[in-house]
Amino acid sequence: MIALFAFSRAVQDLVARRVALFPTLAPAIAILVGIPLAVALKPRCRSPDC
User: Fold this and answer.
1) What angle do CA 31, 35, 41 make, to 5 degrees?
2) For the chain, which terminus, N or C, has the lower number of CB atoms within 10 Å?
């Protein structure tokens, strides 16, 4: 019984750490995804006649 309680507590702690890590990494992930996306979507012609 104690082992089951300890296991469930350990799983809760691991999940809480992963959930807490996501908001910290979200800006970095957005930048890493956004750079290639911005390069792919940039206009090919920069002159005002296009």
Assistant:
1) 135
2) N
